[in-house]
């Protein structure tokens, strides 16, 4: 029972780390899948397979090499120097993405709850700091609550869409997009999201006791991500092409299902922002702790302060420059992960702190009693 619970916690943390605000609003799914019409169903299945394969391999490999942070993992994949450069670039992207997510949390409080923008920022920051004091355990426990709610909402949206007269369109939707772009899209999507998710999946794997738990957690987590992708695509396809005009396409569907579902949806968007924010801050803290001679709590506070400052001014334009670069780098990272051989089980990793036990020196005969 304990191992089953641990497997589900790993699966839910995997899902919660991948499913961020862009996923919840529907924009990511619309841009990477639904806009490609009839190809989307097949590319979502392909993307699900890649999430299962590479997500599981990343976690098991991270555990076997004893990687404490995603920087350790990247150094294993690319070597010390190149891995360090890639990790620093990932650090910048994570801080940028979290600054925008923090701003999104403030916008939810201001636009939908009638509270001050700064209130949303401060609630997110204080809640994140308190949760991070519990470490990876707190992150896993939080996702064990948030992810089942996400899956439940996905089921509600599916059952509601079944009554729509255009529910069948997800299999036959016509598109003018090229087939090449459609089949490249799932690889871009999975590579980018796994490149970001390594910040929490790598240290989580390090604290797992065996490969079997990680393997089942990766499989269940990948299937859960695929299910939520398909549910959103199924719902949005029925409302194409009109749904393209909405900034929050999934919100336009959820808001038609009544006040209760609308409130649950807004809560889930905030919780998805919150869970991804916490996970990324945790990963960044572990990386910086290997470089800076200060405590984890101080590093966490400084990273959050940086995100808070950037959330005041907006980081979208700068991130718009870095995003394509990180997307291309993520593809290289994913290919490198595919080509990197798996470390045999039981073999000490390069980053595992090992203790060598030496035989005691023989005592000279003259000193023996």
TrEMBL record:
PANTHER family, per database record: CONSERVED MEMBRANE PROTEIN, MEMBRANE PROTEIN
Source species, domain of life: Bacteria
Protein name per its UniProtKB record: Membrane protein YkvI
Transmembrane segments: 12-30, 36-54, 85-109, 115-132, 144-162, 182-202, 214-240, 260-282, 294-315, 321-339
Entry keyword set: Membrane, Transmembrane, Transmembrane helix
